[in-house]
Amino acid sequence: MTPPTTAMSDAATPAQTPQAPNATSTALKVWVQAYRVELTLFAVAFFALMMFSGQRFLRQSAAPHFVYQAKAWLEGRQDIAADVLPNFEDWACVREVNGVKERCRQPLGPDDRWYSSFPMFPSAVMLPFVAVHGYQLNDTSFGVFIGALAIALFYSLLRLLSEHEGTGRGELENAALAVVLGFGTLFFYAALRGEVWFSAEVMGVALTCLYLRNAVGARRPLLAGLFWAMAVLTRTPLVFTGVFFVIEAIAPTAGQRREQLKAFFAKPGEVLKTKLQPFAVGAAPLAVIAMVMNQTRFGSIAEFGHRFFFENRVNADIDRFGLFHPIYLARNLEAAFLLLPNPTNPQEPFSFWGMTMLLTTPLLVLAATKGQQVKAALASVAAMLVTLVLAGAGRAPNPQLANVNVAPGEAGLFGLHPAMVKVILVVTLGGAAVAYAIRALSDRDRPAPRLFVPLWLTVAATALPGLLYQNTGYAQFGFRFSLDYTPYLVVLVAVSGWRLLSPIPLVTLGLGALVNFWGALAFRGYTELVRRW
Q1: Does a cis peptide bond (omega within 30 degrees of 0) precede residue 107?
Q2: CA 188 to CA 520: how far, in whole Å?
Q3: Cβ contacts of 134 within 8 Å, gap of 6 or more
Q4: How large is the average pLDDT for residues 231-259?
Q5: Residue 335: Cβ within 10 Å count
Q6: Mean of the pLDDT values across residues 453-465?
Q7: Greater confidence, 31 or 463?
Q8: 3-state SS assignment for residue 532
Q9: What is the 3-state secondary structure (H, E, C) of 464-520?
Q10: Which of 252, 290, 372, 506 could serve as a FRET partner for 86 with CA atoms 20 to 30 Å apart?
Q11: Torsions phi, psi of 92, nearest 5?
């Protein structure tokens, strides 16, 4: 009997069943497809920021305060060993005298304690990376990564607003506005630098995006509180952005906010239970940790260390007037709105205190008006141009900020104190533009977007206290503190209804891109000066 042939044997073998796709692989593909725009924006932004960062990308900045604080924590201590400090710029030094914490003075003693004088959260984010790289962690490339992430997160926020607020913007317009934030505002310059002052601003923008995603409509109060606390412990002025969540929780409906406020104060129980209490629970853990650390380091739960700056140029003002005082208003208004570049002087084309927001952030025109309100927008443009012309006409060859200690008798226009002239100029022109915009926004035929009031109240709440702060920022291309509320301004543009390809948006957004491109290329900051690059 002959055995069966091979062919018959093969024919009898059943066909193999194809393997089911791996569940993890499938989930990853679905996630990548869902977030393809965010991932593309991140990759493109990271590459662009890396290239513009140049040689800075390859080295730690000259102000790596967050890195050194993280390393101290890993060593089991809050203070930083004096012998490892890279410099004395903006470090806090605490000396205890008869049980009272005081600012260190020369000569330094062995019991003096050194701390980072900035909020703690960026150091906490850096902890795992510092555990690997130690004091050598490159805060510049780290900042470029966070900057690219912030741009992607901002697009995600805009997509949420398109879905829930009906902004009418598709993927392309939302992506364009994310690029505007990343490359058409001071964010561009800040994301290239590393350095403690700019690292905090960039991370603050990223955390603001996460906070707003959860705060719009008070949709996720617990997460909103958590991200708000992270943002506040990155940039202290962001504490005032909590007003956005409060409005969204208590009075979210345009046209009915007065009635909703009355209803809340008459019967607050439901909103407190479902919105405000979860928000507080989300924020509380980080807040408590920060207060304990502040108390143990500086003797006050609200002190981050600025009163203990060692041999800093601002100490005389802090000792005389405190951290906040109306006397600082003039120089902050000057730094924010009146400082102009001097491109005719190639050796010193910029003021080291920055440049007016009217040039670095001209999208203010779009944020203050509704789409297609051409007259209101043109009125705002006119006010901006007049301000710039008057600021240029009164500018000294080497512009310096208003000094709070100007000698009596140094009179300016009409015999007024020069600081008062600046206040009157900005308040008058700015007030006229705002009044006109409010009048235009009250047009009942075209009501303002629902988020217009909470967004602008948040901008005001965040910006105004800073104008009374002792510091304007220094070694900066523009008024860097404006980055605390720049995301809100770009969101205002997103909800405004302006078509991005219409003439006024093209001109204002294009101007912002050109000016900030110039700053990213040409401005030499603290690290360059220290290293003589």
Answers
A1: yes
A2: 7
A3: 71
A4: 94
A5: 28
A6: 93
A7: 463
A8: coil
A9: HHHCCECCCCCCCCCCHHHHHCHHHHHHHHHHHCCCCCCHHHHHHHHHHHHHHHHHH
A10: 290
A11: -95, 135
Give the burial class of 415: count Cβ atoms within 10 A of its Cβ; 0-12 exposed, 13-18 middle, 19 or more buried: exposed
Distance CA 282, CA 211 (A): 11
Beta-bridge partner residues of 332: none
Mean pLDDT of the chain: 85
DSSP code, position 70: H
Tokens of residue 499, six digits: 């078509």
Tokens of 226: 């958590």
Q: How far apart are CA 91 and CA 114, in angstroms?
A: 7
Tokens 């999208």, residue? 363
Q: Which residues contact 323 (CB under 8 A, 6 or more apart)?
A: 306, 307, 469, 470
**What's the pTM value of the predicted model, to 2 decimals?**
0.88
Mean pLDDT, range 40-52, rounded to an integer: 96
**Packing angle, helices 277-298 and 221-232, rounded to 10:** 20
Task: Determine the Cα–Cα distance for residues 179 and 188; give it in Å rounded to an integer.
Answer: 10
pLDDT-wise least confident of 171-175, 177-181, 392-396, 496-500: 392-396
Tokens of 364: 């203010």
Torsion of CA 86, 87, 91, 93, to 10 degrees: 100
- The pair of structure tokens assigned to 75 is 């060593």
Q: Which helix (H) or strand (E) holds 205?
A: helix 196-215
The H or E element spanning position 160 is helix 139-164
Contact by Cβ (8 Å): 528, 55: no
Q: H or E stretch including 248?
A: helix 242-250
Q: How many residues appear in the chain?
A: 533
